[in-house]
From TrEMBL:
GO terms for molecular function: guanyl-nucleotide exchange factor activity. It comes from the Eukaryota. PROSITE patterns: RASGEF_CAT. Residues 1-18 form the signal peptide. The keyword Signal applies. This is Rap guanine nucleotide exchange factor-like 1 isoform X3.
Length: 359
């Protein structure tokens, strides 16, 4: 799990309006080369969060770090949809390895290593690797002999308790920054990405990078909230932090950012946070009651009835809880036939209304 200050940096830096100043190019000069985008989950998060979010395409080129067993790294330039073989080719070229015949023991393999120590060996034919890595997972290139020796990056497993910046930031600032950054991510998602994500499955996804990033962001905020609370050692300060996060959730709901609202509430509902009995007892009754209302709103009973009633009364623009949209689409896809008596089932394949929330 990342240090708590890194999560806060993502929140506060995410919506910074970093304006890029472009110098005028003389007419006789060469046209600018294609823009290369750092992918914030797998490059330097701070650098990329300071940039205005733009939609990713499979053909886009990005910067990405690939680590070695000794935790050194090389920065490669690659297509977002690049295969494992393409990535290893770029790493090999960067490391100035000589070309080795396939099957040699000293040839490189690509491994995704999570902060928990879990390792996944990626096959050469797999593609769109960058958008499928989990939270705190990084790419490592190594030989087969050094596979067992791979360990997570030190900054992801060494977390020191103590006060962080969240204690000194107003709830309104955090909620507004979360909403602004998530809006930038949400508006980059094309409606067809939802269809591609559900209909084609993990093996067939090609153009779902923006949706994958939005889903990843929701998980990141959830883990950030739980991490901040658990890093605070004093029960009194933890209670104050709980109050602050409940306020943030309320403000996100007021901003019609239901993605952030859900993420914060789920972070406070984390089992490790819920069992802090002495901390919850210090919480004023007003905030306990408010949090119970939030729990009822996020309750999945009766197919998320409470949530659906609330969002149906909101006027666009709204940032919905995206995982529920995918759940609904999956239910429609698996529970309805694409063809009925040889004819297309229009009820199943009618155009999505996802774009209505962004008007």
């Amino acid at each position: 799990m990342l240090p708590a200050w890194c999560w806060l940096t993502i929140c506060l830096a995410g919506c910074a309006n970093a304006q890029l100043v472009h110098a005028r190019i003389p007419e006789e000069s060469q046209p600018p080369s294609k823009q290369v985008k750092p992918l914030f989950r797998h490059f330097r998060r701070i650098d990329s969060c300071l940039q205005t979010r733009v939609a990713f395409r499979g053909s886009d080129e990005i910067f990405c770090r690939v680590y070695m067993p000794d935790h050194s790294y090389v920065t490669i330039r690659s297509r977002l949809s690049a295969s494992v073989q393409d990535i290893l080719g770029s790493v090999t070229e960067k490391l100035q390895y000589s070309e080795e015949p396939a099957g040699r023991e000293d040839s490189l393999i690509l491994v995704a290593v999570a902060s928990s120590g879990e390792k996944v060996l990626l096959q050469p034919t797999e593609d769109c690797v960058f958008t499928t890595l989990g939270i705190n997972s990084h790419l490592f290139a190594c030989t087969r002999d050094s596979y067992e020796a791979l360990v997570p990056l030190p900054e992801e497993i060494q977390v020191s308790p103590g006060d962080t910046e969240i204690h000194r930031v107003e709830p309104e600032d955090v909620a507004n920054h979360l909403t602004a950054f998530h809006w930038e991510l949400f508006r980059c998602v094309h409606e067809l990405e939802f269809v591609d994500y559900v209909f084609h499955g993990e093996r067939g996804r090609r153009e779902t990078a923006n949706l994958e990033l939005l889903l990843q962001r929701c998980s990141e905020v959830t883990h950030w909230v739980a991490t901040e609370v658990l890093l605070c050692e004093a029960p009194g300060k933890r209670a104050q932090l709980l109050k602050k996060f409940i306020k943030i959730a309320a403000l996100c709901k007021q901003n019609q950012d239901l993605l952030s609202f859900y993420a914060v509430v789920m972070g406070l509902d984390n089992a490790a946070v819920s069992r802090l009995r002495l901390t919850w007892e210090k919480l004023p009754g007003k905030f306990k009651n408010l949090f119970r209302k939030f729990e009822n709103l996020t309750d999945p009973c009766r197919n998320h009835k409470s949530y659906r009633e609330v969002i149906s009364k909101m006027k666009p623009p709204v940032i919905p809880f995206v995982p529920l949209i995918l759940k609904d689409l999956t239910f429609l896809h698996e529970g309805s036939k694409t063809l009925v008596d040889g004819l297309v089932n229009i009820e199943k394949l009618r155009p999505s209304k996802i774009g209505d929330w962004r008007e």
